[in-house]
Amino acid sequence: MSVMLRSFRPTDEEAALAAWAEFQGSGFDFLPFDYETSIPWTEWLVQMERYREGINLPAYRVRSAFLAADVEGELVGSVSIRFALNDFLATRGGHIGYGVIPRFRRRGYATEILRQAIEIAHAEGVRPLLLTCDDDNVASATVIERCGGVLEAIMTDDDGVAFRRYWI
Ligand SMILES: CC(C)(COP(=O)(O)OP(=O)(O)OC[C@H]1O[C@@H](n2cnc3c(N)ncnc32)[C@H](O)[C@@H]1OP(=O)(O)O)[C@@H](O)C(=O)NCCC(=O)NCCS
Question: What tens digit of pLDDT does each residue of 60-74 get?
Fold first, then answer.
């Protein structure tokens, strides 16, 4: 198994949009929360690279990398690595968010995605890292703990949802 984290490419459009549609209503955004279908894919990719460099960041965004998880040329997941925290991220969102397309789950991909994402964040000098997940998200809590997450607290968000805060 070799998971590669890389920038999204023009050729990922179809697979990424299909995954994005598949995740609708799941509570996880496969594409960033501010992705808009009205923006041409290639233009949006350029915007993502600018956000990675911290150029033209909207007030609501922090510098971050949004990467594809690729296994032998197939898109299996996505990950957002935030290099700073705003108020929301410091409480609920954390530094890293990831998702694996349902048909590719239970193969260790998320664990490998998070392991590599931690390395990328560390290479940017970001540590310690805050990781969060819903209290009932056993899969994500397991992934975080396998990557060394230390539970700080279980809290309740503004919507009354219990969530776990971990530090790595
Ligand atoms: C959480 C998620 C990323 C896990 O992806 P994954 O690739 O299946 O994770 P892994 O294969 O690395 O699983 C690691 C371990 O978690 C546990 N796990 C995974 N899915 C599980 C499930 N549905 N129920 C219970 N435990 C589960 C298992 O112990 C698993 O290891 P094992 O298969 O060796 O037993 C995936 O379920 C997902 O995309 N969920 C929706 C988005 C999401 O919740 N993202 C995290 C936001 S904080």
Answer: 999 999 999 999 999
